[in-house]
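Morning F.,

Quick status update on the modeling queue. The single chain you submitted on Monday has been processed. Sequence for confirmation:
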Amino acid sequence: MESNHDSAAPWTVSPLVLAAERADERQRLAALADSGREP
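Structure tokens below.
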């Protein structure tokens, strides 16, 4: 059953989606750091 979940739809979790999520996280962190730098 566990392996079935993996082979059910391997294309749903694409590297593009992961990259987009990471980029979003980086952008948010950068914005927080930017606002924190300003006096």
